[in-house]
Amino acid sequence: DLQICQHRAPTCCTKKMEESYQAAVRRERTQSIQALNFELKYMIVGHITAFQEAFESLLRFAENRTSSLFETAYRPMAKEAAEPVKELFTDISLYILGAETTVESAVLRFFDSLFPLVYSRLINPGITDLSEDYTECLRLTRQDINPFGHFSKNMVTELSKSLWASRMLSRALSLGIEVINTTEHVALTKECSRALVKMQYCPHCQGLTLIRPCVGYCLNVMRGCLASVSELDAQWREYISTLEYLTNEMAASHDLEIALSGIWSSINEAILHAQLNGPQLSATVDKVCGQPKQQEGNLSSANIVPVKEVTEAPTFVMAHASLSNKRREFISYMKRSRTFYASVAERLCDGDLVMRDSSTCWNGEDVV
């Protein structure tokens, strides 16, 4: 009653043993593909971790640097500016990690929140009545009168370029892991599991427990079993090219480190521009939002911050070289894996599975 290991000679096998062999080859094939995938998956997961750690470190540095700008140069509004600054960097982080948001909306929302503070603390430091309605009017007016000049748009442009490459790389790395995980659990067809049993276990039914499959026979069986996996070859090669393009983009003009570390400078320039154009802005705001209550008497000089350049924050210290080296090592490794899905059958038939350096092997029917 044997279905797979049919042979003219007497046999040691039963139908139940054949079923056990089919379960064994399915389990073994999953394990062997997982072993092949392990190094590749380890490299990608390692790079995702290194990328996220470096990014979080950069983001913390840039946020601290921006906060220190307000504390040193614009102290009257530092406390109130803390929340908009935090929101800006949270939005940037979410964008990189793939959230459905845009750099432009994050930056413009920040400047919408900043304008009421700049107007009431720096341009007109005597304002005492900053009601919700008046604050909202200032926020909406910002979009029409553009108090920060071209600096807000420049910030959007610079960040969009560098953060886009980082966002795409982050998504691409996650996609790579998803593809590898999916191929590990590819279901074997009934024909494939039967062919594998015939190749690996049918010799046992003849008492030939030490004989192994011939190389060519193994390759034919594996290529048939893994045809759906090897079809990924063209897309995988294209995927590697995309990773290479994105890492080059990040290392070139879209340098994430430079873009994030320059945020404080863009904000400083924008505030200075608004202060220099204070009288014109006040005249426009008075027409649109009305005149708020002013503090009576002379303003103390402590409340007025002179227009000045902020002193340079400490030098941007970050493992920039280390991050660049990691990128180079990673893409070099990934380029070597271009043929990963084209050569799965060859690698599975390599090693202990087949008979090498011997004059005899199993061809599916007999010892040859």
TrEMBL record:
Keywords: Cell membrane, Glycoprotein, GPI-anchor, Heparan sulfate, Lipoprotein, Membrane, Proteoglycan, Signal. One of its GO terms (cellular component) is plasma membrane. It is a lipid-anchor; GPI-anchor. It is found in: Cell membrane. The keyword Cell membrane applies. One of its GO terms (biological process) is cell migration. InterPro entries: Glypican, Glypican_CS. Pfam families: Glypican. The keyword Signal applies. Cell surface proteoglycan. Belongs to the glypican family. This is GPC5 protein. It comes from Sclerurus mexicanus (tawny-throated leaftosser).
